[in-house]
Design brief:
Distance between the termini: 32 Å
Helix content: 40-55%
Strand content: 15-25%
Protein name: HAE1 family hydrophobic/amphiphilic exporter-1
Mean pLDDT: 85
CATH class of one domain: Alpha Beta
CATH architecture of one domain: 2-Layer Sandwich
Keywords: Membrane, Transmembrane, Transmembrane helix
Number of strands: 30
Organism: Sinimarinibacterium flocculans
Structural class: alpha+beta
Largest sheet: 9 strands, antiparallel
GO molecular function: xenobiotic transmembrane transporter activity
């Protein structure tokens, strides 16, 4: 208690320290990076591969499988997910939390260097931190033409502007880790030739390609000439303008130049995507943030860069850029909601105190203790490198009504001594000393209960760590504040004395009620059995179904659509998009309900597309979803439509309520049939669910297959590779190396005549050394068939995936239960023996999280029991306090059920954390009663009288601490707002558990403390009370 004596004797020093603490707390608050959620990204790498004009099957065989073979067995590797599509693909690697990613990155690069030779025109694998599916896009923008700009193809016309001006400026924004030009059309060197003329001259596309590839610089080494050393280099590189002077062959003793058989030019690649903003075409750009960046500051920097571009280079070209996705909007709104709840909670807690204290100076001192305690938590977040997010702010909000407990108990005890006639100094020191053992015990239990949360692994641990840090540090700081600020400030607070407690008769009546209800042994044991057993039965019967994370929807709608197989981008852009734009026009103009504020429409490679809709009135979200499904996105044959609301809790970039079903095996047809069964069965089992497959469940990507005639090819002096090269030159283009002009590297593409029918392809000529000019049809048989548009692999096995999100009013646990009982039997009956179905996504995470939470809950109970046994020096007293927990848990369950009457409320992971928090809080009242009772007994007071005195002296601080805690959390339970669903369950559990737990503890603890009380002790206690009254 030395620190209390020092503080009491030196108020100016304590005031200065408090002021410095507030100052540093504010500085830390403004320096903390602001994000929506804690950094919950699991360590991941993405290996990107590219092979222009190659199909999914070829990319899988030549690129994906070899990479999987050398990557398999990496230390800490959790999942390997691969994707093969037209022209490219990649392998995503997910690692255990805590993996040394620098070492892993070096290991991956080293292993990639051992890959077997790649196809000549395949790109070297590139390794990126993060995952291609789950990027942390902080913002995206669309560059669109202004009135007066009649440019039809923005991507082609302004590609150089985007690459040389816009991209570098955005990349300089602090916090931006990567800028992606999604709508780009890079340039390439195109060599277009007439296949018939080429064959007539006795040349082949391969000869042209080899000639162009050989036109490059070559180093021949170094040579010493006299006293100087020279580099010997063949200057073979030619500028594009002189490539036509390359000799590709000889005819009648004269050279044939490339310009004679081909046209050479620098042109833009074919468009692979398009984007519209409110019906106006634009150039789409996305920006990813670094893990340590401040989202709000980053967006402000992006807006400044956009303004600079709009006023400068873009304005000169009659272009305009604006944000199409701004992550800071939701960050600000969600954090604003918590801040408002925090302020209102503090206000309600202070009003509650005012009603009972009525001493303005004492109230001011108690009110100051709240921000001081919270400042410790904010400074700790800054020191640990954490962020200010909805979880850490929720921890501060939950702490507002709780951190005042210690100060309230100390202040109340000091005031009681003053009202008994003791001097201010004596009352301060003795009052603080008397309650300090109980406060230390309460603080240690409240803090220790978070230890299991701090050491949780995985995404759950990362998500809840900020909550554990803020609340545990706040609790510990509140004890320090109570030991220093309250004693120091009491000289001023008590200078005018304290009014008599106007509610003393309440505390006396409460003590009398607690004693009367436990006066008889039968009543005591009946009360103990009824409360404990009844609470356990109530909890088991009414515990809600479990969920992964709360349903926290945003005011945007994702409308994904899978386009008909075989469709090209031009068809989608010219036929599909205009109809969607026209149907959205009246909603955008506000002439048709529901009104749309703005929307973005994009498509990639003519296969997938997305429309992101922002309704003008958030209350129209459900109606907008209906309109999209039933009016706008209808009438498109073979187009699959998937409409859903955006989720605020997109941890890892994934919707955390999405269930994924994996169908794995070697036979793709069988996997697709089983997935089709699941697609039909899921909506029957869970009405209102719209399952989404990946990839498409039909092998319906049109293919022209050429079956080689081995005899004719060999007799003509060719091989299959030569024929394949010729076919590539006649279709997507034959890669003929790269051209480097000193600034940029361009692909050189050799391409023959265009053709539009399989019959025309069959007539294309091929010059052969052994049989002269042959046609493609002479060397191969043409068949029309279908194949996959995309291939997916999980952990090295071909996989077909079906994703779905349960309705907003159904828990994840219930949805999985229905899948297991109603869908899985049908699917397994359709699966072949060599295939399997597994659960992934939130389903898999939920099971792992529940197991982790159960272990941590049990560990918290053990820690709580052991700590109290050590503090009380009594296993029995610790056991008595633990018996109040079932009643409190039942109170939390009852509160959840009451909140569920006004809206869907499941038992999600955040709500489960509420029960762990509740364990450390609800025992505080019991600790106060046990500590006070044992202290009186050690002073010679009989058991019965000791219990009565403990009830009477501790009634006020227990009621006030419970009241301030509940009032502090009330805004998080009752206030509407973006993200309110995140905290509602947690706050209701803690508030309901404390309210009901305190109520029943008032009767349960006297019954437990008086267990074994005899009539003789009752008589002794009565005589002791009479003697004390006479004295």
């Amino acid at each position: 208690m030395r620190i209390t004596e020092i503080s009491q004797s030196n108020p100016p020093a304590v005031a200065a320290a408090a002021l410095i603490l507030l100052l540093f707390g504010l500085l830390a608050l403004f320096k903390l990076p602001i994000q929506l959620l804690p950094d919950t990204r699991q360590p991941q790498l993405w290996i990107e591969v590219g092979w222009r004009e190659a199909g999914p099957a070829e990319i899988e065989e030549a690129l994906i499988e070899p990479i999987e073979d050398i990557i398999r067995g990496l230390p800490g590797l959790v999942q390997m997910r691969s994707d093969a599509r037209r022209g490219g693909g990649g392998v995503g690697l997910k690692f255990e939390v805590g993996t040394d990613m620098t070492r892993v990155m070096l290991d991956v690069v080293s292993r990639l260097n051992t890959l077997p030779p790649l196809p000549p025109d395949a790109d070297e694998p590139r390794v990126f931190a993060g995952d291609n599916w789950q990027g942390s896009n902080a913002a995206s923008l669309l560059v669109r033409p202004l009135p007066g700009n009649q440019t039809q193809d923005i991507a082609a016309t302004y590609q150089k502007l985007m690459e040389e001006v816009v991209e570098p400026r955005l990349a300089r924004v602090p916090g931006v880790s990567r800028v992606n030009l999604e709508g780009g059309r890079p340039q390439e060197v195109q060599i277009r030739f007439d296949a018939f003329r080429l064959a007539a001259l006795g040349l082949t596309p391969q000869q042209l390609a080899q000639t162009v590839i050989s036109a490059r610089d070559a180093s021949a080494g170094f040579v010493d000439v006299g006293r100087r050393q020279f580099t010997v280099r063949l200057a073979g590189r030619e500028p594009v303008a002189r490539l036509g002077e390359l000799i590709v062959g000889w005819s009648d003793d004269r050279p044939l130049y490339l310009r004679e058989v081909a046209d050479i030019r620098v042109a833009f690649q074919e468009a692979q995507a398009f984007s519209y903003r409110n019906g106006v075409p634009g150039y789409y750009i996305t920006m990813q943030r670094s893990s340590e960046s401040n989202t709000v500051t980053l967006i402000e920097g992006v807006k400044a860069a956009i303004e600079e571009l709009n006023n400068g280079p873009l304005a000169r070209e009659l272009l305009f850029a604006d944000l199409s996705w701004d992550a800071s909007v939701y960050v600000k709104r969600a954090i604003s909601f918590v801040q408002e709840s925090l302020i209102i909670g503090i206000f309600l807690a202070v009003i509650g105190l005012w009603y009972f204290l009525r001493g303005p100076r004492a109230l001011i001192v108690l009110g100051i203790s709240i921000p001081l305690s919270l400042c410790f938590a904010v400074i700790t977040l800054q020191i640990l490198g954490r962020t200010l997010n909805v979880i850490s702010l929720a921890g501060l909000a939950f702490s507002t009504g709780i951190v005042i407990d210690a100060a309230l108990i100390v202040q109340g005890n000091i005031i009681r001594y003053v009202q008994e006639g003791r001097g201010a100094v004596e009352a301060t020191l003795e009052g603080t000393k008397e309650v300090m053992p109980a406060l230390v015990a309460s603080m240690l239990t409240s803090v220790a209960i978070f230890l299991p949360v701090l050491f949780m692994q995985g995404i759950e641990g990362q998500l809840f760590k900020d909550l554990a840090i803020t609340m545990s540090v706040s609790y510990a700081a509140s004890l320090l504040v109570a030991m220093t600020l309250i004693p120091a400030a009491n000289r001023w607070a008590l200078a005018r004395g304290m009014p008599a407690d106007q509610h003393q008769h309440w505390w006396t009546a409460m003590a009398r009620a607690g004693m009367r209800a436990t006066d008889h042994p039968t009543l005591r044991w009946g009360l103990i059995g009824t409360l404990v057993a009844g609470a356990c039965a109530f909890t088991a019967a009414l515990l809600p179904k479990v969920d992964y994370l709360p349903v926290a929807q945003t005011d945007l709608i994702w409308n994904n659509f899978r386009l008909p197989p075989g469709g090209n981008l031009a068809t989608v852009r010219d036929e599909f998009a205009p109809q969607v734009i026209e149907r959205l026009r009246p909603h955008l103009e506000g002439t048709k309900h529901p009104a749309v504020k703005y929307y973005n429409l994009s498509s990639w490679a003519g296969q997938w597309g997305v429309a992101v809709i922002y309704p003008k009135d958030p209350r129209d979200m459900d109606e907008m979803v209906r309109v999209l499904r039933e009016e706008i996105m209808v009438g498109y044959p073979d187009t699959a439509i998937f409409v859903q609301r955006g989720s605020l809790l997109n941890v890892e970039g994934e919707n955390q309520r999405e269930v994924q079903l994996y169908f794995q095996g070697p036979e793709l047809d069988a996997l697709m049939r089983a997935a089709e069964v699941a697609m039909n069965a899921i909506p029957e089992a869970i009405p209102g669910t719209y399952p989404q497959p990946f990839p498409a469940l039909e092998l319906n990507q049109p293919e022209i297959q050429l079956i080689p005639d081995e005899w004719r090819i060999s007799r003509a002096g060719l091989d299959r590779g030569t024929v394949a090269s010729a076919l590539r030159a006649y279709t997507g283009g034959l890669w003929a190396g790269e051209y480097f002009d000193g600034n940029q590297r361009l692909d050189i593409i050799l391409k023959g005549n265009d053709w539009d029918t399989p019959e025309a392809l069959a007539e294309m000529p091929v010059m052969t050394p052994g049989a002269g000019v042959q046609t493609v049809g002479d060397l191969a048989r043409i068949e029309l068939t279908v194949g996959p548009s995309q291939l997916a692999r999980i952990n090295g096995r071909r996989t077909v995936q079906v994703n779905f999100e349960p309705p907003a009013d159904m828990s994840l646990d219930e949805a999985i239960e229905r899948i297991e009982t109603q869908v899985e039997p049908k699917v397994r009956a359709a699966l072949p023996a060599n295939a399997q179905m597994t659960y992934a996504g939130s389903a898999n995470q939920l099971h792992a999280a529940l197991s982790s939470m159960a272990q941590n809950f049990a560990l918290a109970l053990v820690i709580l029991f052991a700590l109290m046994a050590a503090l009380f020096r009594s296993v029995w007293d610790s056991f008595l306090v633990m018996l109040v927990l079932p009643v409190s848990v039942a109170g939390g369950v009852a509160a959840l059920r009451i909140v569920g009457l006004f809206g869907f409320q499941a038992l999600d992971l955040l709500t489960m954390i509420g029960f762990i928090i509740l364990l450390g809080l609800v025992v505080n009242a019991a600790i106060l009663l046990v500590d006070q009772t044992r202290a009186r007994e050690r002073g010679g007071v009989p058991r019965r009288e000791a219990v009565r005195q403990a009830l009477e002296t501790r009634a006020r601080p227990i009621v006030l601490s419970t009241l301030t805690a509940v009032l502090g959390m009330l805004p998080l339970i009752a206030m509407p707002g973006l993200g309110a669903e995140i905290y509602r369950g947690l706050a209701s559990v803690v508030a309901g558990g404390m309210l009901l737990g305190t109520l029943f503890t008032w009767f349960l603890m006297p019954a437990l403390l008086r267990a074994g009380e005899t009539e003789q002790s009752r008589s002794l206690a009565g005589g002791f009370a009479e003697a004390k009254q006479r004295s």
